[in-house]
Amino acid sequence: MAFGPGRVNLIGEHTDYNDGLAMPFAIERGVTVTAEPARRFTVDALDLGERDEFDEPERADGWKAFPRGMVAELRAAGFDVAPAHLTITGDVPQGSGLSSSAALEAALALALLGRVPEDLKALARLCSRVENDWVGAETGLLDQLASLCSRADHVLRIDFRSVEVEPHPLDLGDWQLVTVDSGATHSIAASGYNQRREECRAACEALGIDTLRAATLGHLDGVLERRVRHVVSENARVEATASALDAGDLEAVGRLLDESHASLRDDYEASVPEVEATVERLKAAGAAGARMVGGGFGGSVLALLPGGVARPAGAFVVAPHAAARLL
């Protein structure tokens, strides 16, 4: 049996696939997968009341792409994966922006292997291939690294150019981080996420660079310039957030969350009306800062609440928890 946690990204959105910076952490909620020896692969998604069965992993749509893709990618990487009866259950809402997909991938990988591999970064890349090539969502490595490499009571500063993972203590005192579901669910594969990735590739081509980590502003026009401006400024906000946390300046962290949301809304155009209404409600309730989390186009909103501010209705407290593990 294995557990894969969901994640919250404190700051650094849409930067991972641009070789940028981010600061995620694993949360208490996640996905649990059990694996028992069997003659063929049987997968029961208990929360959906659905089953899949296969001998060899062929392409499939929806949730069935995850276990099939995981078996195929683990075998392609040289792991011995025997047929198993898998059961899947979890408490990370799908489409919430809390990375139920990476939680599922991590839990599937560990359950099928029956152990935690030494090279977690390589396993994160493998999980990402499942999502990219089997599910059809062009995600980066942020979610998988957060689920597999997190540490309790810490956020991770991840540099996606070097794939360096650096834990930073998260001491909020009597402040709280909460998430609130906007009510607008999203599917990364079906949203504007893949389009944003294509726009980033187009910006790189126009600038003659490999990734937007090397970009500077003022050389493009219109949509592509806005996309570049978000990535460049969001990387700077990650560095500023790390410094603010080290200094214990939570008010500055709140301002940076607000700036991140404005950039995601205006420059990356990844928001929807339900998300905007949720951000406004949290700010009106006294949040020091609030922003959309995840791929955008729906999902959850993260807010930083000062001590003494009452938790709004529907808010779920999030704090850094341990990484994916065997149970």
What does this structure look like?
- One of its GO terms (cellular component) is cytosol.
- Its EC number is 2.7.1.6.
- InterPro entries: Galactokinase, Galactokinase_CS, GalKase_N, GHMP_kinase_C_dom, GHMP_kinase_C_sf, GHMP_kinase_N_dom, GHMP_knse_ATP-bd_CS, Mevalonate/galactokinase.
- This protein has 327 residues and is α+β, with helices and mostly antiparallel strands.
- The chain has two domains: 2-169, 2-Layer Sandwich (Ribosomal Protein S5, domain 2), CATH 3.30.230.10; 176-318, Alpha-Beta Plaits (2-Layer Sandwich).
- The chain contains eight helices and twelve strands.
- The protein has helices at 65-76, 100-113, 120-135, 142-149, 193-207, 222-247, 250-266, 273-284, and strands spanning 2-11, 21-37, 41-45, 50-54, 84-90, 154-159, 164-169, 176-181, 289-292, 300-305, 316-318, 325-326.
- The strands form two sheets. Strands 1, 2, 3, 4, 5, 6, 7 and 12 form an eight-stranded mixed beta sheet that branches. It has a four-stranded antiparallel beta sheet with strand order 9-10-8-11.
- It is globular and about 55 Å long.
- The mean pLDDT is 94.
